């Protein structure tokens, strides 16, 4: 039974029902009913009908191109003090980092380090307040909404980071400028925001917030959406940059809904293998920046350390001189990265040979195996193929095709590839090696890291000639 103020609306067909059911009675879709406030929906629909009548022309709603002041940004970005973080948040004329009033959803599996990253952000901001506003009395506090952990745990972590990194902060600033909110009630939280006027809000996590206006439990789609909407409404008005932590389900989507992704300005994702040392931060959506930049962090004792030269870390652990290993170069945003790819090709015992990729799309493996079979006459049709990208990286760029293909043949023939060689090129269906973008940048990075030989279309126009040169 729902509260009198709420209804259940199907996200698929828009049907509205007084009570929840697993299957929509109208369109038959499963799990599409979401609890929604009756008021807001009926208000919206009555507004819509009123709006359909023409309204008087309002000149303030039109801006001519000539009146746009291109020299001025509408906002001033606030750096986080963590440059790998700022890289992902984006940059423009006003600097880099957070945009005031921007609401950023930060997702990732539980335990991957989202809270750690955000506590580090808190430390950096406190440090900035300390250095910038020494003695100034009017500072805006940092508001940390502690839903997942107790203020105690967070404070302890902050103390540890301060000690570890020898960051100096006035005790007075620490005591006054950091406030924790422990309420799960989003409406109480918005009153706190109104009253305290923080310079930043961190909600850890959005799944713990609820409003009493809805019946659903915390974490339900309806509660998530309503809570997010209420926070956005307040922080936008007050120009406060806001981070919402959202846990990711096993299936890899931010728990609950895609709906949240549409509501916020940016969706960031922190990923990495749980057991591995590296964490990658990337933007899936960013209204204020590019979505292809990657921030790279390394796990250290009490937090995440920035990695300025990711290629070195990726290659450090690579298996040189082993059959099946090849070095490729990808470009993430503006930064070229050298990464090791590994292939394992063995005679299959199955009627349907296996193709397994970690960090590589399955369709790519299938295409490359077919090209090798057709043009290089390597009978991969009866072989199991496993491909792996080192460091938990996931690559979609076609520039790695050549490296993947060569790694497969190297494993198949059991012949290691020559040291100091990087493979850059897309492989076409006719077995040709194609040029890729940012060639100069990639070659420069390879040289910087001591690679002496780049194999690309410039040297070999076809896959077969590449294999011949390598003696494969
Ligand atoms: Zn429906």
Describe the structure.
The protein is an alpha/beta fold. It has 3 domains: 6-50, no CATH class; 76-308, P-loop containing nucleotide triphosphate hydrolases (Rossmann fold), CATH 3.40.50; 312-469, Ribosomal Protein S5, domain 2 (2-Layer Sandwich). It has 13 helices and 22 strands. The protein has helices at 38-51, 83-89, 114-132, 151-164, 171-177, 186-196, 221-238, 258-263, 310-316, 362-375, 401-413, 439-448, 463-469, and strands at 6-10, 16-17, 33-37, 91-92, 95-96, 103-108, 142-146, 178-181, 200-204, 242-247, 266-271, 278-286, 294-300, 303-306, 325-332, 335-347, 355-358, 383-389, 421-423, 426-427, 433-434, 453-455. The strands form 5 sheets. A 9-stranded mixed beta sheet has the order 8-7-9-10-6-11-12-13-14, sandwiched between helices. Strands 17-18-16-15-19-22 form a 6-stranded mixed beta sheet, sandwiched between helices. A hairpin with a 7-residue loop joins strand 12 and strand 13. The longest helix has 19 residues, at 114-132. Bound molecules: zinc ion.
Secondary structure elements and their pairing?
Blueprint: E1 6-10, E2 16-17, E3 33-37, H1 38-51, H2 83-89, E4 91-92, E5 95-96, E6 103-108, H3 114-132, E7 142-146, H4 151-164, H5 171-177, E8 178-181, H6 186-196, E9 200-204, H7 221-238, E10 242-247, H8 258-263, E11 266-271, E12 278-286, E13 294-300, E14 303-306, H9 310-316, E15 325-332, E16 335-347, E17 355-358, H10 362-375, E18 383-389, H11 401-413, E19 421-423, E20 426-427, E21 433-434, H12 439-448, E22 453-455, H13 463-469
Parallel strand pairs: 6-10, 6-11, 7-8, 7-9, 9-10, 15-19, 17-18, 19-22
Antiparallel strand pairs: 1-2, 1-3, 4-5, 11-12, 12-13, 13-14, 15-16, 16-18, 20-21
